[in-house]
Amino acid sequence: MKSIKDIENLKGKRVLVRVDFNVPLGNDGVVDDNEAWRITAALPTIKYLLENNAKIILMSHLGRPDGQVVEEMRLGPVQDFLSEILGISVTKTPDCIGEIAEDAVNGMQEGEIVLLENLRFHSEEEENDIEFAKKLAALGDVYVNEAFSASHRAHASVEAITKFLPSYAGLGLEKEINALSKVIDDPVRPATIIMGGLKAETKLPVINFLLDKFDNILIGGVIANFLLESSGIDIGKSVKDDLDISEAKKIDLNNPKIHIPVDVLTDDPDNKEVDLSTDKVGDFCILDIGEKTLAQYKEIIKNSGTVVWNGSVGLFEKDEYARGTREIARTMAESSAETIIGGGDTILALTNFGYIDEMKHVSTGGGAMLEFLSGKKLPGIEALK
């Protein structure tokens, strides 16, 4: 796999960069500084290209418009944020392909940046359509993948486009691969992974693969709800996502590497702390791990040489249910272990709690990180080889 640093003489070259600027927009339609980490993660590559006098064409998706133009999902706020943080004017096209996009790119000077409109306004993007990829490729001389978080998807701007242009890895993508490859190939033992948050449909299936890589798997969040219910424990009205319970039953909970909550915190005003060995959740929801579980998890983290974290273990946005996530973050920050985190809610939690800078590596990908660690081949990375 070639690096962006292997491109000879970037001066004047049209460099088509796939970034992931899929960031939340507030009610005011503005990018919040605390939510802009995917944008800031791409800055080293963008600045490298600026320093080498390239013409930079950025392309990204935002949200799930399902192949339709959705005004609230236009990339204008991202354009504004980029212009401000870089201190230069960033141009945005009203579409990512077509004559207007071509004219904007053809009129570029060295050191200028054009941001193409939301790729997912075209259904062909997620369909990995060859003709759509060819139209995108026509805008550049070389292609750079700087979107690790989108590289587990075989989409046109990630996979098919590499068939038409010399293709390279961006600085951030290289950093991700190096950091995560070390976890797979030569981790400091014991190696522990914490899995929580939502999106159980993407996380449950990789647990069995991760058993070969890690010495401990600590479970929280919605994934824990599934596993608890599959073992016959009452979880009340707790969130489970739209996933068949049979998926959870594929996981052997007798495996000593897997740790699930033994007690939980609920929204029951009269009985918040529930010991799952003796009590039932009843008509309430599990919103955090309990005291005994937290103590067990913290002890495992303290004795680990590598700790990877994807997904909060509770509803950390509400202070009364933030204890588990906050304490795990603090324990990792105080640890001498190789600490790696990934996933939007995990990054937001550590940012809010002030521990983000204490982590050894912050991955821009949640699902992509888990798939990479489980040994799956990521289409966007394979296409660069």
How would you characterize the overall build of this protein?
The protein has 385 residues and is an alpha/beta fold. The chain has two domains: 4-174, Rossmann fold (3-Layer(aba) Sandwich), CATH 3.40.50; 187-373, Rossmann fold. It is built from 16 helices and 15 strands. It has helices spanning 37-41, 43-51, 76-86, 99-106, 123-126, 130-137, 171-185, 200-203, 207-210, 221-230, 245-248, 291-302, 323-334, 344-353, 367-373, 379-382, and strands at 14-18, 55-59, 90-92, 113-115, 142-145, 167-169, 191-195, 216-219, 258-259, 263-266, 273-275, 286-289, 306-310, 338-342, 361-363. The strands form three sheets. The protein has a six-stranded parallel sheet with strand order 3-4-2-1-5-6. It has a six-stranded parallel sheet with strand order 9-8-7-13-14-15, with helices on both faces. A three-stranded antiparallel sheet has the order 11-10-12. Strand 10 and strand 11 (273-275) form a beta hairpin. Helix 12 (291-302) runs parallel beside helix 13. The chain is elongated and about 70 Å long. The mean pLDDT is 92.
